[in-house]
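Q: Can I see a sequence and its folded structure?
A: Here is a first one.
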Amino acid sequence: MGLRVAVAGASGYAGGELLRLIAEHPEFSLVAATAHTQAGATLGSVHPHLASLADRTFAETTPAALADAELVFLALPHGQSGALTAVLPERVKVVDLGADHRLRDAAAWERYYGGPHTGAWTYGCAELPTLPDQPSPRSAIATSARVASTGCYAVASILALAPLLAAGVVEADDVVVVAVSGTSGAGRAPKPNLLATEVMGSLWPYKVGSHQHVPEIKQATGARSLSFTPVLAPLPRGIVATVTARPAGGATAETIREVLAEAYTAEPFVRLLPAGGWPSTAATLGSNSCHLQATMDIDSGRVVVTSALDNLGKGAAGNMIQCANLMSGLAETTGLAVNGVAP
């Protein structure tokens, strides 16, 4: 029997993806999957694609249901993780997909999420640049018992932007991100605007000028001014983000590509595409990979970096497994796919 793990909020899309990855993980053993309204239902009735787990039953999301786990994955709505983790034993390691513990700034939490701030944990993005006189993000995750995993839009933007700001080749002011996401990023709760008849054949910008991932992206990258526009697309999963910024220090398109190549050459899950190739959601489907491309806009002179990833993979469950692997002393890539699924 491997490391005993549990998933709270296992009936949602991210929770289902966690269950799928855990079922195939050679070192993790699922001891509990909890839910709210689906408590008592079989996993197969909610996630029919999980054949090996179909006869298991969702428990209610309580501390007692999670007590036998050595590591707990939380896939709960924002604002619900803090109260649960406060009563979990200290011996239990936790990876949280909610935003409850991502932000260090309590005022930013209150502004974008509302309610009391429950404190910041180690931020779960292993590929972030190492800051001067600071441990590497990877080692910080590996030595932490509580880790706040990234937001989906956030990681797509952060991986495109963070190395450039760290190297000083783009300016921290006037960063603009436009990102398109599939509908699974909005969760599984039934909503009129997510009906197929509303979504198919349409693109829909939302939370324009006030999206909650803004302070997370700024905190992780060091950007000082950020305009972020999310767009809902008629596809189940995937994110494409286009990040633009003013160049600094005489940076050229070649400079930008060199910085990204140096930052990610040894990273198993981040790939800078060959010149002329552009990221697509299809190429990252079902994987924990993020694909990047960069250029310079010939009219405005702005740096343009485009990223693509699976919002349920590197944007959610995959990144959580990556963090859990580090926290458990396992190879970071254990149980995770670099290659996507096609067609």
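Q: Show me another, different protein.
A: A second, unrelated one:
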Amino acid sequence: MSNFQYAEMPDAEGYFGEYGGQIIPPELQQVMNDIDKAYEEIRQTEAFQNELKTLFADYIGRPSPIFHARRLSEKLGGAQIYLKREDLNHTGAHKINHCLGEALLAKYMGKTKVIAETGAGQHGVALATACALVGIPCEIHMGQVDIEKEHPNVVKMKILGCNLIPVTRGTATLKDAVDSAFEEYLKDPQNFIYAIGSVVGPHPFPKMVRDFQSIIGMEAREQFLSRHGKLPDYLAACVGGGCNAIGLFTAFLEDEAVKMVGIEPAGKGLDTDKHSATLTLGKPGQIHGMKCYVLETEEGEPMPVHSIASGLDYPGVGPQHAYLKDLGRVQYDTATDQECLDAFITLSRVEGIIPALESSHAVAWAIRTAPTLNSDQTILVNISGRGDKDADYVADLLGL
């Protein structure tokens, strides 16, 4: 394992092992290759690096801190739990990290409109924010079910000036929003850019979004080392498409002693059809222009999936996650809706931090795992977003 250079993924065709690629019409391949070429050119320039670095610091508020959840650790016994506070970023989640990068790229390429999908609305808010900052029109497609669940984010997107398109087809959730946004993008791919909201889709998006998100892990590695003189024993992050997890994991891939766990939604149970546990129960297939693990029906169509967290209900997953699973470098586990809700309330009441329902899956795993470890061991959980967007929904659910 140690002589394998993880940093070299993906290859020139966008493959992580057998996963990824560009499973798209030939005319779109040229467009994607143009985006890749522009990205590779721009990312090397000092001007772009400096602009992004300045915006990360002065606009997002990076570096995000690492917080020792002492009371939670004491309550559970066992390992010490630390939280990487991406919830403290401007717009309240990790999504702003890659949205700023994508908006700057769109501006550099002279695009006239940025199009995207959103599930929980965090990507939508972050992209609308970034587009307002760089002065480029923004259109967000969002499933009607998610619009009703995530009212605060819907209002923010409208205030920020984006054109919000409700999607009522299919399950009216994230997959349908992706389909709708992609159709709009295909109307004029020369002048529009599709700013994919995770490490999914055709090459170069899994690579590009990962690169912008890798700031999370780079900071965390340096912060943990300088404070403790050693690295964490475990990293935990939720996985839907998987960008917050890849963002945390990338800087630690060569550190073999660091165990990494991606936590998927088990929803109402893995023995039901109400889950989104793609890596746990899916198999290699194709979706949205890439090869990855997919949850499919018997007819070979993407399965209708479920999670209490709108940002995780996706029947595919980032191709790099599929590859890391096959290599055994990252373990993938699950948490149910109920465990997620319990974790949401526990972290809120024990540490005064209200996490997003997405992040609560990773918190649930830490709560389950910490008591099985020794007190000198450490778990670093990526709190990928804050729970403001989920507060009303959870309050209604629990009768608060």
